[in-house]
Design brief:
The protein is mainly beta and 177 residues long. Helix content is 7%, strand content 35%. The chain has three helices and eight strands. The strands form two sheets. Strands 1, 2, 3, 4, 5 and 8 form a six-stranded antiparallel sheet that branches. The chain has a two-stranded antiparallel ribbon with strand order 6-7.
């Protein structure tokens, strides 16, 4: 296996605000992650994106303390001090899509062979839109693959494109007394 990455981070601390952001641009390739079968006739087709590969990963965490005690000095300090909002946001690319077909078309007894890739792979950026064949919630064109030949492996690589990414934000309001 091989893993290469560029990693960068930035941190800013002020009296009432703290911010930390990190970005990783990476690529991981191997021939055995995800417990997938090996193509014994063509080892180059077994070398693919790792099942855990995420090309782009951005994470930001932040915290801001509200100055309620300065905005409302007439209220009790116990009520106005110690309020903060905290959050973590992650924007990441998707993990690779594993391509296989059921059955034992290669007649090797290993099962889960790869199909033949005939081209025309169209990836839909927004899975809520209609996909390449006009159906909703279709991420890629499944017609780009056909069953592999009987007695041989298909020519498709195990994992050669990524699935949809994720955007996740967690927020919290915190009071220290």
């Amino acid at each position: 296996s091989s893993y290469n990455s560029l990693q960068a981070s930035i941190e800013r601390r002020a009296s009432a605000f703290t911010f930390l952001a990190s970005y990783t641009w990476s690529k991981s390739m191997d021939n055995a992650s995800g417990f997938s079968g090996m193509n014994f006739l063509n080892f180059n087709l077994s070398r693919a994106l790792s099942s855990f590969d995420v090309t782009h990963n951005f994470v930001a965490s932040y915290s801001y303390e509200f100055p309620f005690d300065r905005l409302a000095p007439m209220l009790p300090k116990r009520l106005t001090q110690g309020w903060s909002v905290n959050g973590i946001t992650r924007i990441a690319g998707g993990t690779p899509i594993g391509i296989s077909q059921t059955g034992d078309r290669s007649l090797t007894g290993a099962g889960n062979d790869e199909p033949d890739f005939i081209g025309g792979l169209v990836i839909t950026q927004n899975v809520r839109d209609k996909g390449p064949t006009g159906r909703v919630h279709e991420f890629f064109n499944k017609e780009a693959f056909v069953s592999g030949p009987l007695g041989a492996y298909g020519n498709a690589n195990q994992r050669f494109f990524h699935g949809p990414g994720t955007v996740n934000t967690d927020l919290g309001i915190h009071k220290t007394t």
